[in-house]
């Protein structure tokens, strides 16, 4: 626990200044985290990032992560109408590679690479886009994720009796799941009282409940992936906390959600 607390403090001290400043440094940091996360998910499958399929997947990831205005410049430079065409081209190259190596890499592995690129890439892309809307929205996202995670942990330890999904994550409980939502709503309302950023308290409550649930589902998705590949953590870049995906799994689900909900109508 001591190691986890120290690592969390150091990581927050390094991450938060980038969040506050935003712009290019924040984009580059998020892109670097996405690359590490993509490396972690490929490693679980036994695919090297430095192989031909891994490299093509990496190009797909980068194109998905970078801000929309950056990707528009890329597609303009190479003469395509949209980045979707470039992603489609990379997918075709991956499939052609399957033929060239006579199924030494399979269709299933290509599908895994592409799904991994979309899962990791789009989640981090929307983190960058959320910051472009305003610092308060990133703060809200982080607040929901961190308070949900902490609330679920402490409420689960204190009151948890009924297992939530024991086949996926044995330690999580129904009480912790609900407690995480309640704590997230309380902190979100506190943020709204200090710095009004949402359209109103009622909409904020519903959005926070939904975001908290989706965030916890994102955590369970990562747990399901790790359980399938029989690994404890996605990586070991953060002592006591695991890898990038271990720490950002919930956020990868929450930030796209806020864009689907049109960021509180703004």
UniProtKB/TrEMBL annotation:
What membrane topology is given? Multi-pass membrane protein
Please state what the protein is called: Phosphatidate cytidylyltransferase
Q: GO MF annotations for this entry?
A: nucleotidyltransferase activity
Top-level lineage group: Bacteria
**Metabolic or biological pathway, per its Swiss-Prot or TrEMBL entry:** Phospholipid metabolism; CDP-diacylglycerol biosynthesis; CDP-diacylglycerol from sn-glycerol 3-phosphate: step 3/3; Lipid metabolism
**For this protein, what is the EC number?**
2.7.7.41
The alphabetical list of record keywords is:
Cell membrane, Lipid biosynthesis, Lipid metabolism, Membrane, Nucleotidyltransferase, Phospholipid biosynthesis, Phospholipid metabolism, Transferase, Transmembrane, Transmembrane helix
Subcellular location(s): the record lists: Cell membrane
């Amino acid at each position: 626990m001591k190691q986890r607390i120290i690592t969390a403090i150091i990581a927050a001290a390094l991450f938060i200044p980038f969040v506050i400043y935003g712009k290019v440094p924040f984009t580059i940091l998020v892109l670097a985290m996405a690359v590490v996360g993509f490396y972690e998910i490929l490693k679980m499958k036994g695919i090297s990032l430095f192989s031909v399929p891994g490299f093509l997947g990496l190009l797909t990831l980068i194109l998905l992560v970078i801000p929309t205005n950056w990707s528009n410049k890329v597609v303009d430079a190479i003469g395509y109408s949209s980045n979707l065409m470039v992603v489609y081209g990379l997918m075709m190259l991956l499939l052609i590679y399957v033929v060239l190596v006579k199924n030494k890499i399979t269709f299933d592995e290509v599908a895994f690479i592409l799904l991994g690129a979309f899962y990791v890439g789009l989640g981090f892309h929307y983190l960058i886009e959320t910051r472009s809307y305003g610092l308060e929205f990133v703060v809200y996202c982080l607040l929901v994720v961190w308070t949900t995670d902490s609330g679920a942990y402490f409420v689960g330890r204190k009151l948890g009796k009924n297992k939530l999904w024991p086949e996926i994550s044995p330690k999580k409980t129904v009480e912790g799941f609900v407690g995480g939502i309640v704590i997230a709503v309380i902190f979100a309302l506190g943020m709204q009282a200090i710095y009004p950023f949402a359209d109103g308290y009622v909409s904020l409550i519903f959005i926070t409940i939904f975001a908290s649930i989706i965030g916890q589902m994102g955590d369970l998705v990562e747990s399901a992936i790790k359980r399938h590949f029989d690994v404890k953590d996605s990586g070991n870049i953060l002592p006591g906390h695991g890898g990038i995906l271990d720490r950002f799994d919930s956020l990868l689900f929450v930030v796209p959600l806020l864009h689907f909900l049109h960021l509180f109508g703004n």
